[in-house]
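Good morning C.,

I know you're traveling, so I'll keep this short. The sequence:
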Amino acid sequence: MKKLFQTSFSLILLVIISLVFYYQRYDHNFVAVKRHTNNLTFPYPLNTINFNETSSSSSPIHSSANAKPTDIGISTEACNDVIKKYNISMNSFVLGLSYWEQLTMATTNLCSLTAFSRHWHARTVEPFTRNAEMWGLPSTAHYPVFHGMPPIYKGGPAKPLDSLFNMTLFNSHMLCSQYNIPPLADFEEFMLNANRSIRLLHFNFNAYGKQIPTAKEFSDDNHYINCLGHSYFKDFSSRLLSYLNAEASERSLPSFTVDAACCVNHRHLTTPEEMASKCGFQDLESLTVVIPIWRGYSELPTKKFRLVVPEDSPVLHRPVSSDISYPLNNGLLSNVTAYSHEISEGKDFIGVHIRTAKLGMLDYVSRKKLSTKCFDMTWELISKLQKEFPELPIKYFVDFGTYGSHSSEIGLGKRVSKRQFARRKINHIHYDPEKHGGWTDQGFVALVEQSAISNAKVLVMVGGGSFQDQILTRFKDRGTGKSGYAICWTKDSLFVKKVV
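The tokens, ready to paste straight into the viewer:
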């Protein structure tokens, strides 16, 4: 009898301990979420936004009255106006899982998706960044490696975009004020308020082989296919849900489901409105769209890797690297100041940037050694500049090195560039994040160098691309440079062009 009593007491004690542990864990998760939402500001007066309450079983966890937008740290009239003008729902989200290509182009593509999502009355979820790439989901052990995507977050976790950009200026000044685009929503807000019924949206670029609809499955009358039944999307959905539902479980939130998948013929001239209609986006007040890979769009049908939109489409009015300087955060700017002083000691210099990945691509596409011609023109120009500005030292920057561009490592241009530099006994320079207390990340390093180069008195850029577009934009914005030159920016412009 005594033994039975001891056993019963032990079991009761074990149950009590288990319950205490469970509720402590629940409270911890709730407090973690609550701590985050308490720190969010709500800059948009709710009485300025018109919502119709939904009673669907797949409606968001919170009604629009309780939903909170991303913490952009300000109360901005411009963002209020955008929210009101486009009737943006606090419960509608578009989540891009990956952004093509590296950081500068990925930022441009992020801005293009926000402009596109606006016409669905939705906001784009702010992505995370690591090593010059943008991903829609934070780094945890649950993250699946999707087909067609490289292994990501290798070597450490990703960080929010505010590790690189001033997100207050990014949202309020750039997106809202200058382009009439709603601010980004953060991932925590998405997890709390998103409709649990996911609609996948895939743009068919024939990038994944036979598992995904090919051009043969589209027709002149049908550019949108229900592809949820395809084996690729069954596997994709499983991988996606394994991640999202693990994140939801950690927050004690309901699980997600994938209930639809729409494949779009990327060669078809389209609009956000047509896409919403053909893909069945009916409830725009409570919409959750997940896009595996977002490559942006263009009005040029020759851009086979992007969507094509009409020439007069309002979505074309969005931030691009050749028009606006993406706002950097203060920590990164302090590294720019320190690095700029290191390379120039406060004096003017001639800055030369070689985008070797683009030169290699030029050789590959043309099947000719055009990069050699580009270097010949570069050396000729630099010789002239040395005579015109004999007092200015020359600083050479390249896109390869310890923290260099991914694409430069596999490009033909890197080998050509190394030979050119060795032949002339030229040393190129790099920013060392460990020396200046910066983030040892390719994207962080690239932005520091990009901004430092734009401090040059005379600027020479070889190869082109969005990275050099942004260098030139920053150079023009500073307004203190004497002249700027672009060499071999496209396969059709193999010459020296004075751009400032």
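Safe travels,
E.
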